[in-house]
Specification:
The complex is a heterodimer of chains A (795) and B (100). Chain A is α/β, with parallel strands linked by helices and 795 residues long. Chain A is built from 28 helices and 29 strands. Chain A has five domains: 53 residues, Phosphorylase Kinase, domain 1, CATH 3.30.200.210; 266 residues, Rossmann fold; 205 residues, Dimethylsulfoxide Reductase, domain 2; 58 residues, no CATH class; 116 residues, Beta Barrel (Barwin-like endoglucanases), CATH 2.40.40.20. Chain B has a single domain, classed as Lrp/AsnC effector binding domain/regulation of amino acid metabolism (RAM) domain (Alpha-Beta Plaits), CATH 3.30.70.920. The complex binds iron/sulfur cluster.
Chain lengths: 795, 100
């Protein structure tokens, strides 16, 4: 690069950063144009987490070369995190899968084969499995990282074609409790507000979320709000572990894992006791529920939470803070002009994850900290399209597209009619949820499974047990992915997929926002878009099974080109036919509109005209949410029309403190919790391949509280054995006052067999959401040796 | 030589300390600071690896609350890729077992 070009780029970089904070620099804007010579910037959303940052990918001579934000973006105000900045490096990475690979037996070596042969084999194997055991013998396991068009088409072939509701995805492992929490508290899935509330909030209640590392760009917005209003904005952080997020907190309460239900009930108690609740809001919009959904009374609720005095809760939580601290945060929460709660896996990945979600929603309902600007109960999503594709597009075993429960006959009929398949084609019973699906694989009941864009071999809890099933030679596994993973190592057929910006499609992030990313560059080698792969597979399946209904499922998509026409036709079918009149009405968010709307559209957006305003910022509010008007039943300003609550009220739940499935005991005396670190994502198949990110954190370590380390004779860097009833890890120690005494913490990205923490975690599930309790189990902690040199490991 | 644009956030009371610290880093060019504690800077390094390290180093300063990236240009590396050079692989890399 010449010196002058470098100067242009440096000036462009300075102007870019300055524009974010409205700083005027004495630099001529001509430098921007000169820096952009030969570079085309393609708009899209980031691929690497659920925040949904709007980004622009720079491409020069067909090769991606950089990334930039756009200051006016509504999601990220243009900021991107390190992880996001580097995702484009995956695109031309030498490890990319570029050819279909096949082996008949799992002990054989993979051989490169043609697409024609690969698709024939996939069709043969699914046809054979179906013949042997019908819809029960086949399964699809997808991802919150797949585009909506992909999830939708996969599930259509599975349900309408193969008559199987065995459609699941990794959001079961992270978001299922949040979805069930929203449905049971508000009557409808997904948040009422969104990020726009941050700039109007006066209190942030962050529980079970290390926002600073897991959602860094959102954390910046919270931090900015706090710094700009240091005296009027409060930040409360509730977590067993002190993290980067705690840095801006006015109050951090550390509790023993699994005791937060008592804490949340105690906050409700203070609010009721001190009459800080919004009696008018409760009277107009809420009812009280207990057990399965039996209606009860305000008095009952008061009596229930009265048991949770702050003194009692402080004791249950481990005695690490004072009872008065609970009173203080309950007052901040209730009295602020607007309170936003934020949480992620700390509440969701729990035996009682749905209850934990209910109890946070309770606080918002009783105080009326909802539906107004600056107030919301906002579950942060981990993946870019867990909400859009999986929760909305029909990617779980119990829901059809458009938030339709499978067991509802009328709704099944609507889907069958939209697809033009015979009535009764979609089975009436939900399929197997994730843990049941992999148990059925262990038992050999599922004979063929398609795993798309995810790595359950590493991400399932107690993974050694489920890897045994995936190793079986009578279970045929197809994987579509961009890189080799621990799961592609269990496959018979590995199909190379296109990456983000190499194909076209929609992601729907945390705040009901759908954003389109168009194809900007070609895929390497023979990698293809999943929508093409599924269509070609389904056509062969129809021929081999001699089933015209399967052919009918792909008929609207025949002959369309993979880069744009095909995903567009799939999106059109899904939005126009299957979201019409549903709470996630996306009819207005056509590709044409999404191309115009740089920040996408928030549903409900029933018409193009409304979608062109950006869609619904606040659900349920007349005048702001078009459905609140069309669904209105009275003169009240808020209309809670969610289909899960026929009485159209918000439900305040009576829920008790409940212990995790496994508690520490004399034999396994420590709590183990798991989570993320800023530079890495999930199973590290992408971020572990980016040297800059890998070197920052080359391998997992275990965080040990200094007091525990002292007792156990563990010094920084020592090798430590973490053992549960299920498995063992050997990890270097980080002695650090992060985790509360009595608890150790390990991040879960590492693929090395000695450091893969899901060998240790427990596979107990929430009975409501079926989400596993990754966050809590009991372990032994033992010093094994002095520090040892370690190597990072990526398959 | 990657070049990035960043907004470094600090507490307003600590901004001068952060500026003094940034002045010691040769890869950092400060373009301005405001009363809210925002510092606009350009980072220029020899490699992406060094870019990661310098951002990490700035983030770890006790007075720095957040380093917000807004722009990254790594076209030198991209040009090398066009010319056939493979980007650096992480150490410990190996092909999936069973791949021919
Ligand atoms: S916060 Fe998430 S969406 Fe935003 S740039 Fe980082 S990884 Fe991407």
């Amino acid at each position: 690069m010449t010196q002058t070009r470098r100067d242009f780029i440096k000036k462009a970089a300075a102007l870019s950063a300055a524009s974010y904070v409205s700083m005027n620099l004495p630099i001529d804007k001509i430098n921007l144009a000169r820096a952009d010579e030969g570079v085309v910037w393609h708009r899209g959303s980031c691929r690497l987490c659920g925040v949904g940052c709007r980004v622009e990918l720079g491409v020069k001579d067909g090769v991606p070369m950089g990334l930039r934000g756009v200051a006016e973006s509504r999601t990220n105000f243009g900021y991107v995190c390190m992880k996001g900045t580097y995702f484009w490096k995956c695109m031309r990475h030498p490890d990319r899968l570029t050819k279909p690979l096949y082996r008949a037996k799992k002990s054989d070596a993979f051989k490169e084969i043609s697409w024609d042969k690969a698709l024939d084999i996939a069709a043969d194997q699914f046809a054979r499995a179906h013949k042997a055991g019908g819809g029960d013998a086949v399964a699809y396991y997808g991802s919150g990282q797949s585009l909506t068009e992909e999830t939708y088409l996969f599930q259509k072939i599975m349900r309408g074609g193969l008559q199987s509701n065995n459609v699941e995805g990794n959001p079961r492992l992270c978001m299922a409790s949040a979805a069930a929490g929203y449905l049971s508290s508000f009557g409808a899935d997904e948040p009422i507000g969104g990020y726009a509330d941050f700039e109007k909030a006066h209190c942030f209640f962050i529980i079970g979320s290390n926002t600073a590392e897991a959602h860094p760009v959102l954390f910046r917005r919270i931090m900015r709000r706090k710094l700009d209003n240091p005296n009027t904005v409060k930040v409360i952080n509730i977590d067993p572990r002190i993290s980067q997020t705690s840095r801006i907190a006015d109050m951090h309460l550390q509790f023993m894992p699994g005791t937060d239900l008592a804490l949340l009930n105690a906050m409700a108690n203070v609010i009721m006791e001190e009459k800080l609740y919004d009696a008018e809001f409760v009277k107009n919009y809420a009812t009280f529920r207990k057990g399965e959904a039996e209606q009860t009374t305000l008095e009952d609720f008061k009596a229930q939470v009265a048991k949770y005095t702050p003194e009692m809760a402080a004791k249950v939580c481990g005695g690490t803070f004072k009872a008065d601290d609970i009173r203080t945060i309950a007052r901040w929460f209730a009295k602020s002009k607007g309170t936003v709660s934020l949480w992620t896996m700390g509440l969701n990945q729990r035996k009682r994850g749905v209850w934990a979600n209910n109890l946070v929603h309770n606080l918002h309902i009783i105080t009326g900290q909802l539906v107004k600007d600056g107030a919301d109960s906002l579950s942060l999503t981990g993946q870019p399209n867990a909400c859009g594709g999986v929760r909305e597009g029909g990617g779980l075993c119990h829901i059809l597209p458009g938030h339709r429960p499978v067991e509802n006959e009328k709704l099944r009929r609507q889907v069958e009619a939209a697809w033009g398949v015979p009535e009764g084609r979609i089975p009436a019973a939900p399929g197997l949820h994730t843990m049941a699906m992999f148990s059925a694989i262990n038992e050999g009941k599922i004979k063929a499974i398609w795993i798309n864009c995810t790595s359950p071999a590493q991400s399932l809890p107690n993974c050694t047990l489920y890897n045994k099933g995936m190793d079986r030679d009578d279970v045929f596994i197809v994987c579509t992915d961009i890189f080799p993973t621990l799961t592609t190592q269990k496959a018979n057929l590995v199909l190379p997929a296109s990456f983000h910006f190499e194909k076209t499609g929609v992601y729907g992030c945390t705040e009901r926002r759908s954003q389109l990313t168009r194809k900007a560059i070609d895929s390497p080698g023979e990698a293809r878009a999943e929508v093409w792969i599924v269509r070609e597979w389904a056509r062969r399946l129809a021929e081999k099974m001699n089933d015209p209904v399967i052919a009918q499922c792909i008929k609207p998509f025949e002959g369309l080109t993979e880069g744009y026409e095909l995903p567009k036709a799939i999106w059109d079918e899904y939005t126009q036919k299957l979201t019409a009149g549903r709470d996630n009405d996306l009819r207005g968010a056509t590709y044409a509109v999404l191309e115009k709307m740089a920040d996408g559209v928030q549903w409900p957006a029933p018409t193009e005209e409304f979608a062109l305003t950006g869609g619904t910022v606040k659900k349920f509010v007349k005048g702001r949410d078009p459905m609140a008007t069309t669904e209105s039943r009275n003169d009240l300003p808020y209309q809670f029309y969610g289909a899960a609550h026929p009485d159209r009220t918000l439900w305040i739940w009576l829920r008790e403190q409940a212990d995790p499935e496994e508690m520490p005991d004399a034999e396994y005396p420590f709590y183990l919790s798991t989570g993320r670190i800023i530079d890495h994502w999930h199973t590290m198949s992408m971020t572990g391949r980016i040297p800059e990110l890998l070197r920052a954190n080359p391998y997992a370590y275990v965080e040990v509280n200094p007091k525990d380390a002292d007792r156990l004779g563990i010094k920084p860097g020592d090798m430590v054995e973490i053992k549960s009833r299920r498995g063992v890890n050997l990890l270097p120690a980080k002695v650090y006052a992060g985790p509360v005494e009595g608890m150790v913490f390990v991040y879960w990205h590492d693929q090395h067999p000695d450091r893969m923490i899901n060998k240790v975690t427990k596979d107990g599930i929430d009975p409501g959401s079926k989400e596993p309790e990754f966050k809590i189990c009991a372990v032994q902690v033992k010093r094994a040796s002095d520090p040892k040199p370690l190597e990072p490991y990526i398959v | 030589m990657p070049i990035s644009g960043v907004v470094i956030a600090s507490l307003p009371s600590e901004t001068n300390d952060v500026l003094r610290f940034l002045a010691t880093l040769s890869q950092v060019e400060v373009h301005g600071a405001d009363e809210k504690g925002n510092i606009v800077a350009v980072l220029e390094t020899e490699s992406s690896d060094e870019m990661e390290k310098i951002i990490d180093r700035i983030s770890r300063d006790q007075n720095v609350l957040h380093v917000g990236l807004t722009y990254l240009n790594a076209e030198d590396e991209a040009e090398r890729i066009i010319q056939g050079e493979e980007p650096a692989r992480p150490f410990g890399f190996r092909k999936p077992s069973g791949t021919t």
